[in-house]
């Protein structure tokens, strides 16, 4: 197993753990994981960098983490380097900029943040719904046909091809996908891409004036030109990912009990792989 593939495996597992709000405090308090994520931000593989940014963005969702993350050695400098690096894909720069702005504001309005910290860390995972970056917006899609992992993979492939998609997460139980996109990208482009799979149909979920939700179909016959994203490298298929040793495997994501053992494993990997 190559060192680069090892790094990708570790950062992807850490990203998945960070997606659960109940894990975020433990990850930031761990002595190895946060410094390791910072090192991953300077990794030569763009896929590793992007996955590390997603993990950091998840961790920054917890207000109680932000001050420590901002003060962690190399965090702000590494984010700046990603933003300024000429070879960084546009979506990677935008995500790094969004994280930088969130952490830069840490420490302000401390009383309000302290009051909201507990609720912020407990609330249900909701992917990048803040409006910290005016150049990005969130679109919620209801996808008919999003029934299993195969359909989910098809949907992922369709979304990853769209230039302007920053990140996305699935809510399989309700057949929804929450997509973070650049402000200049039309939501119809997402519908066109998903509908092109021929086995799924996307509709947009919008808020009503009374605070409810309404599902709005995309206009039939409206062809939206989808600009394909060629900057971000192809994601490795999950079935090609190497198997972890049994004592290092993560059985499932979503529980701090399941994640604690893996945090130690990740820290050990980072300690073996880097000079601090």
From TrEMBL:
Record InterPro entries: ARM-like, ARM-type_fold, Armadillo, ARMC1, HMA_dom_sf
Source taxon at top rank: Eukaryota
Keyword terms, alphabetized: Cytoplasm, Membrane, Mitochondrion, Mitochondrion outer membrane
Membrane among keywords: yes
Localization annotation: Cytoplasm; Mitochondrion outer membrane
Pfam families, A to Z: Arm
GO CC annotations, alphabetized: mitochondrial outer membrane
Molecular-function GO terms, alphabetical: metal ion binding
Subunit structure: Interacts with mitochondrial contact site and cristae organizing system (MICOS) complex components IMMT/MIC60 and MICOS10/MIC10. Interacts with mitochondrial outer membrane sorting assembly machinery (SAM) complex components SAMM50 and MTX1.
Job of this protein: In association with mitochondrial contact site and cristae organizing system (MICOS) complex components and mitochondrial outer membrane sorting assembly machinery (SAM) complex components may regulate mitochondrial dynamics playing a role in determining mitochondrial length, distribution and motility.
Protein name: Armadillo repeat-containing protein 1
Upper classification of the organism: Eukaryota, Metazoa, Chordata, Craniata, Vertebrata
